[in-house]
Design goal:
The protein is an alpha+beta fold and 144 residues long. The chain is built from 2 helices and 7 strands; from the N terminus they run E-H-E-E-E-E-E-E-H. The chain has helices spanning 16-24, 113-141; strands at 3-12, 37-44, 52-59, 62-72, 78-82, 88-96, 99-109. The protein has a 7-stranded antiparallel sheet. The longest helix is centred in the C-terminal third of the chain and has 29 residues, at 113-141. The termini are far apart.
Length: 144
Amino acid sequence: MGEIRVSAERDVAAPAEVVRELLTDYARRPRFLTENYTDFGVDEGGAGAGTAFHYTFRAGRRVRGYRMRVEETPDGALVERDTGSSLVTTWRVTPAGPGSRVRVETSWTGGSGVGGFFERTFAPGALRRVYEQVLGRLAQAAGR
């Protein structure tokens, strides 16, 4: 077992405040998620820290449900922690010229044995491709 990390980032033509507002509004989150995410719903709150939400994620034949709780760091990052596993996703939005730079990173403790080998080998690339699509959709949702 070992920690697995996957990240993706993208420049978005919209100002950081606009992008951050989209990310923190969990009711609007499905607008820019891919078909890999289903059954998305907000359980508590809905905007930023204190929000609880759930979704089902499908990658290939693997399907898993997640129940996430949202925290915000002092520097404004959104940290989404699964209540039932080690999975943590962090979103960071920083100003970049007239637009912004968005970075998403997920980490989790991988499995052991043969299954863990395949997870470490194939999951990062598959998840990175999903995140690249999500970031593209986020850029479109930001209207820029």
